[in-house]
C-alpha cells in the first residue's frame, strides 16, 4: 500500500504523456501485486560474507513506563552515573544510543501555546486584583473572564480564582448554556457523551 | 506504630494441647443455647475484628460476666441446668471433624505435600487451618488465631517489599497494590490454585482436607492493621476523613479502607441502619483467604520467621501485578507541571515528534514531553491534545514507577550476620492531592 502514493504521480504522468485521458488502474491482480511488492527490510538481507548473524528487527512499540528517564533517576541511583558518562560522550559527538534516545534535537518544534501548560507569570498586583473585582462586579457581561484575562495579561484560571460572579449572573449563564444544550439534536448529544467517555478512558490509559 | 508482639499473640497456638477428652466434652453447635451467645460475645471481644451476619444476635456482656460464662462453659454447667454434662457429651455431632481424623485424610496429606510444607508443621495444624470460624466458633478449633498471625506477617512483608521496590508510589496506588497482593481476592485465587476444595456444608463427618465454612454464620474478617486511633470512631461517626489523608490517618486496615466500625467490638446488629456494613460481601473468598493466612501463620509458628518470609515470597510476592494499570489521573498536565516545579526541573514542554494523516479521518500524532533537553514521556494519540495528555500520563507513570531494582528490605537485618541497615530511598510524598 505504501508504494501506491509514490507510484500514482508517476503513472499519471506516464499516462498523460502516452495516451491522454487514460489512467492505468490497479484493477487486475497482477498489477496490484506488483504495486504492493516492497523490498525486504535491510536487516533481513543476509550477505554471503556474514552467514551467522542475529536479525534484530523488533516491531515498533510504545516506550515502557518502567523505563525511568535520566532526569527522574534519584542522585543515589547507580544508573545515573552510568548514563551520565554516556550522555557526556554523546554530547562530544561519539555515537551513543542512550544519548540519542534521551536528549532532544533542537529542530523538534514545540506545540502551540494553547496545547501547553501555561507558565504562571505572577504579574498582577494587589491593586489590579481589586480593580479586576470591581470591573467584574460592575458589569459581568462586558467584563467577562476572557476579557479580564486579556486586559491583565493573566490566565483565565487566575481571573476565576480572583473574582466570583454574582449568583444572578451565574444563573443567567447557566440558563444560556442550558438553552444551547436544549437545541442539540440526538447526534450532537451522543457525540458529546462519547467525548466524555473517551476522556475518561484516556485518563485511565485505556485507549 | 506500636511494636507487634507476635510471640505473645500467638503463644497459645503452640501451647494449647488438643486433647481428645476436651474435644469430646465440648458441646455441639446444636445443643448450645445460652452459652452460645455468651461464648460468641467473649470470642468477639478477644479476636482482632469481626463482621456478623444479620441473622445472629449478639448479647454484649461485661468482662467479668464473660469470664464467669466461660468458666461455666468449661465445666459444662449452663444456667438452665437442663442439659447435664453427660447429655452434652454426645448429644449431637461436632461442628467440625475431630483432629484425630486428620492423620487419615488423603486430601490433607496431599495438600501438605503439594505445598512442600516442612514436616515440622503437623497435619493437625493444617486441618485446623481449614476450619473457618463460621464452621466452628470455638477459637481453639478454628483458624482465626492462626489467620491473624499469618495476616500480620503477610502484610508486613508485602508492604516492606512494595515500598522498597517502588519508593515513589502514591498512597492510593500503594493501598491498591497491597490489596492486589494480600487482599481477599488475591488470596482466594491462591487458595484455588493450591487445589483447596470446600465442603458443601461443615460438619463432623466431612473430610478434614476440605475447607469448611458456612456462609450463613458469623465469621472473622482479617482487616486490622496495627494501632487504631481513638479518633477513628468519631471520624467514622461523622463521615469525615474520607479523603486520602484521612485514609492514611484513620484507616484501620492495610488497604486504606475505613473499616473502623467493623474493627471495633461494639456491634449493633439489631440496628438496621448499619446492618449493611456488618454483612460479609463474599463469604467464600473470605474463608479461602483466611485459610491461606492461617497456613502462613502455621509456617511462621512452626518453622520460624525466615521460612515464613520465603513462603510469602514464593507464593505471594512472586505474583505479577501490573502497577501501571492501576493509575487514574485527573489533571495529568498540571500534576506534571507541579512535579517539575517541585523537583527544580525545567518546565515541561510538549513537542510534536511525528505525525501522519493530519487531514485524514484517522490522524496519528506522536507527542513527546520534554524538560529542557531530556525527554520525560512520549505517546501517540488521534489529536494533539489527547496525545499530549497521554504523554504527560506516561511521564508521570515513569516518575511514580521508578524502581531501584533489587534492594534489601528491613527484614533482611533480622539475620544474625546481617550487614547494618542502609536507609532505602523513599520519596517525600504526593505531588498534588
Question: Can you offer a commentary on this structure?
Answer:
The complex is a heterodimer of chains A (207) and B (433). Chain A has helices at 3-18, 29-36, 78-91, 97-102, 126-138, 145-152, 156-162, 167-183, 186-203. Chain A is flat and about 85 Å long. Mean pLDDT of chain A is 81; it is low at 1-18 and 92-104. Chain A has 207 residues and is mostly helical. Helices cover 52% and strands 0% of the residues of chain A. The longest helix of chain B has 22 residues, at 144-165. Chain B has a 3-stranded antiparallel sheet. A two-stranded antiparallel sheet of chain B has the order 1-2. Chain B is mainly alpha-helical. In chain B, α3 (34-46) packs across α4 and α17 crosses α18. In chain B, a hairpin with a 2-residue loop joins β4 and β5. Chain B contains 18 helices and 5 strands. The A-B interface holds A 62-63, 65-74, 76-77, 101-104, 108-111, 115-117, 119, 198, 202-205 and B 324-325, 327-330, 332-334, 336-337, 345, 347-353, 367-368, 370-381, 384-386, 388-390, 393-395, 397-399, 401-404, 425. Chain B: Pfam families: DSRM_MRPL44. Chain B: Residues 108-196 form the RNase III domain. Chain B: Its main location: mitochondrion.
Amino acid at each position: 500500500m505504501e508504494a501506491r502514493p509514490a507510484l500514482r504521480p508517476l503513472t499519471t504522468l506516464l499516462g498523460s504523456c502516452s495516451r491522454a485521458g487514460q489512467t492505468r488502474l490497479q484493477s487486475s491482480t497482477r498489477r496490484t501485486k506488483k504495486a504492493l511488492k516492497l523490498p525486504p527490510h535491510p536487516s533481513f538481507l543476509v550477505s554471503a560474507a556474514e552467514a551467522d548473524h542475529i536479525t534484530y528487527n523488533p516491531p515498533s512499540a510504545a516506550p515502557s513506563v518502567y523505563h525511568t528517564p535520566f532526569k527522574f533517576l534519584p542522585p543515589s541511583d547507580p544508573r545515573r552515573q552510568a548514563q551520565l558518562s554516556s550522555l557526556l560522550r554523546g554530547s562530544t559527538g561519539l555515537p551513543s544510543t542512550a544519548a540519542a534516545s534521551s536528549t532532544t534535537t533542537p529542530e523538534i518544534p514545540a506545540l502551540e501555546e494553547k496545547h501547553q501548560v501555561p507558565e504562571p507569570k505572577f504579574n498582577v498586583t494587589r491593586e489590579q486584583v481589586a480593580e479586576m473585582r470591581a470591573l467584574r462586579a460592575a458589569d459581568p457581561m462586558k467584563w467577562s473572564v476572557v476579557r479580564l484575562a486579556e486586559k491583565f495579561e493573566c490566565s483565565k484560571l487566575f481571573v476565576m480564582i480572583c473574582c466570583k460572579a454574582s449568583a444572578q449572573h451565574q444563573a443567567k449563564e447557566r440558563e444560556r448554556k442550558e438553552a444551547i444544550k436544549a437545541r442539540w439534536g440526538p447526534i450532537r448529544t451522543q457525540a458529546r457523551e462519547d467525548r466524555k467517555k473517551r476522556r475518561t478512558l484516556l485518563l485511565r490509559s485505556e485507549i | 506504630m506500636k511494636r507487634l508482639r507476635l510471640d505473645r499473640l500467638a503463644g497459645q497456638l503452640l501451647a494449647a494441647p488438643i486433647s481428645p477428652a476436651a474435644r469430646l466434652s465440648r458441646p455441639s453447635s446444636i445443643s448450645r443455647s445460652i452459652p452460645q451467645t455468651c461464648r460468641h460475645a467473649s470470642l468477639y471481644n478477644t479476636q482482632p475484628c469481626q463482621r456478623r451476619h444479620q441473622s445472629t444476635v449478639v448479647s454484649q456482656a461485661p468482662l467479668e460476666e464473660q469470664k464467669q460464662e466461660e468458666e461455666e462453659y468449661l465445666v459444662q454447667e449452663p444456667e438452665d441446668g437442663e442439659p447435664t454434662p453427660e447429655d452434652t457429651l454426645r448429644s449431637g455431632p461436632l461442628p467440625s471433624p475431630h483432629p484425630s481424623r486428620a492423620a487419615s485424610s488423603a486430601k490433607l496429606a496431599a495438600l501438605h505435600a503439594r505445598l512442600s510444607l516442612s514436616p515440622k508443621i503437623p497435619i493437625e495444624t493444617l486441618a485446623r487451618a481449614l476450619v473457618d470460624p463460621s464452621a466452628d466458633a470455638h477459637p481453639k478449633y478454628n483458624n482465626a488465631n492462626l489467620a491473624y498471625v499469618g495476616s500480620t506477617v503477610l502484610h508486613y512483608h508485602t508492604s516492606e517489599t512494595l515500598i522498597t521496590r517502588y519508593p515513589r508510589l502514591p498512597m492510593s496506588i500503594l493501598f491498591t497494590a497491597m490489596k492486589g497482593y494480600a487482599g481477599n481476592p488475591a488470596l482466594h485465587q491462591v487458595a484455588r490454585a493450591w487445589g483447596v476444595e470446600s465442603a458443601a456444608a461443615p460438619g463432623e463427618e466431612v473430610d478434614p482436607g476440605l475447607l469448611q465454612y458456612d456462609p450463613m454464620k458469623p465469621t472473622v474478617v482479617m482487616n486490622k492493621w496495627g494501632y487504631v486511633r481513638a479518633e477513628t470512631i468519631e471520624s467514622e461517626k461523622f463521615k469525615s476523613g474520607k479523603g486520602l489523608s484521612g485514609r492514611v490517618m484513620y484507616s484501620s486496615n492495610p488497604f486504606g479502607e475505613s473499616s473502623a466500625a467493623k474493627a471495633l467490638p461494639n456491634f449493633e446488629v439489631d440496628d438496621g441502619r448499619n446492618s449493611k456494613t456488618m454483612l460479609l460481601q463474599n463469604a467464600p473468598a473470605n474463608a479461602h483467604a483466611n485459610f491461606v493466612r492461617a497456613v502462613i501463620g502455621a509456617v511462621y509458628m512452626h518453622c520460624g520467621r525466615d521460612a515464613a518470609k520465603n513462603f510469602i515470597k514464593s507464593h505471594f510476592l512472586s505474583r505479577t501485578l501490573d502497577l501501571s494499570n492501576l493509575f487514574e489521573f485527573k489533571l495529568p498536565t498540571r500534576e506534571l507541571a507541579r512535579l517539575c516545579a517541585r523537583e527544580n526541573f525545567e518546565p515541561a514542554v510538549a513537542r510534536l515528534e511525528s505525525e501522519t494523516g493530519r487531514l485524514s479521518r484517522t490522524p496519528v500524532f506522536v507527542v513527546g514531553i520534554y524538560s529542557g533537553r531530556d525527554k520525560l514521556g512520549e505517546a501517540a494519540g488521534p489529536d494533539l491534545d489527547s496525545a499530549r495528555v497521554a504523554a504527560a500520563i506516561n511521564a508521570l507513570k515513569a516518575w511514580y514507577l521508578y524502581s531501584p531494582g533489587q534492594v534489601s528490605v528491613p527484614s533482611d537485618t533480622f539475620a544474625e550476620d546481617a550487614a547494618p541497615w542502609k536507609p532505602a530511598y523513599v520519596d517525600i510524598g504526593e505531588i498534588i492531592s
